[in-house]
Amino acid sequence: MTLLRDERLAAAFDHAARRYDALVAVNPGYHAHLRRSARRLGLPGEGRGLRVLDLGCGTGASTAALAAVLPEARITAVDASAGMLEKASAKRWPPGVTFTRAPVERLADAGVRGPYDAVFAAYLFRNVTDPDAVLATVRGLLAPGGRLGVHEYTLAGRRTDRAVWTLVCRGVVQPVAGALGDGALYRHLWRSVMEFDTAGRFADRLRTAGFEHVRRLPLPGWQTGITHTFVARRPRTERESGR
């Protein structure tokens, strides 16, 4: 199968939105891992006075993780899928959380403008057509010294990691999703991870995009070697980045 991109991917998420929360709920540690990645941003004071951008928020799982860790922050959550945003915005949220529909490639058109103190992106970068262009956009949205947190399926590179990922997808996720009519999206999920950067390659991609203090941190449980948190910082000055 070919990977789903842009409008086709957004349409697939629209179709899957009604059942999405139920499917991710059977993933052990899904929400706890997102909260762990949000904590790894290391933002102070429960986010008081800070602006945080949640890119690719889906039905709001990543937004909920940010709101739990940073209850005082102003959080702007963005997604390209109308169906996913409808599910997200129907939930109860603190006053500082707002939702905006926009593809990550056209944030300015939707009025999403920096500077942000932090950008968080969960399960986003392997789904975009041009990850480097998106990283450049994110860097421009961050305040000098602002932090980027990425929570993503990025295989460590061992054969066992690829084998476990394939077993989980083909043995559990795809049969259930197929029965619910969302098979194309979850076949895309398997392939998008297999074809995306390894964890080391994505860390290098962040450095090439001009981020500093890049850290690659594993997540526990069955996703060890499959899912990682990446934390990086926009340099405080252009001289720091060598640009």
Structure overview:
The chain has 243 residues and is an alpha/beta fold. 44% of the residues lie in helices and 20% in strands. It is built from nine helices and seven strands, in the order ααβαβαββαβαααββα. The chain has helices at residues 6-25, 30-39, 61-69, 82-89, 131-141, 159-179, 183-195, 199-208, 238-241; strands at residues 51-55, 74-79, 97-101, 116-122, 142-153, 212-218, 227-233. A seven-stranded mixed beta sheet has the order 3-2-1-4-5-7-6, with helices on both faces. It is globular, with a radius of gyration of 17 Å.
Q: What's the helix and strand layout?
A:
Elements (H helix, E strand, L loop, with lengths): L5 H20 L4 H10 L11 E5 L5 H9 L4 E6 L2 H8 L7 E5 L14 E7 L8 H11 E12 L5 H21 L3 H13 L3 H10 L3 E7 L8 E7 L4 H4 L2
Parallel strand pairs: 1-2, 1-4, 2-3, 4-5
Antiparallel strand pairs: 5-7, 6-7
User: Roughly how many Å apart are the termini?
Assistant: 40 Å
What structural class do helix, strand and pairing data support? alpha/beta
State the low-pLDDT regions, or none: none
Order of the strands making up the biggest sheet: 3-2-1-4-5-7-6
H/E order of the elements? Answer: HHEHEHEEHEHHHEEH
- Total of helices: 9
Q: Give the beta-strand count.
A: 7
Strand content: 15-25%
- State the major sheet: 7 strands, mixed
The averaged pLDDT comes out at: 94
Round the Cα radius of gyration to an integer and report it: 17 Å
State the helicity in percent bands: 40-55%
What is the overall silhouette?
A: globular
